[in-house]
Design a protein that fits this description.
It contains two helices and no strands. It has helices at 31-44, 48-61. The mean pLDDT is 88. The chain has a domain at 18-61.
């Protein structure tokens, strides 16, 4: 790095869109689902929350709807 750069006096700008990138939510998931994504995360070295987000994002992009059938 060049000697004439003085990063101590630089004024950086924060990204104004950072707060809109992700939204913290609380959801309840069954243990089997969490275990499944945790095992995938270990295989791929990706945090399991990121894998869940990627999967849900893919579902939203492709307009996938869950197939749910309730029994009486």
């Amino acid at each position: 790095m060049r000697d004439h750069y003085d990063f101590a006096t630089m004024k950086g700008k924060k990204n104004p869109y950072v707060q809109h990138l992700k939204e913290p939510v609380t959801i309840r998931l069954d243990r089997d689902s969490v275990d499944y994504f945790k095992s995938l995360s270990e295989e791929n070295n990706i945090p399991y929350q990121t894998l869940i987000n990627l999967y849900l994002h893919d579902c939203a992009l492709n307009h996938r709807k869950p197939q749910v059938s309730w029994t009486d």
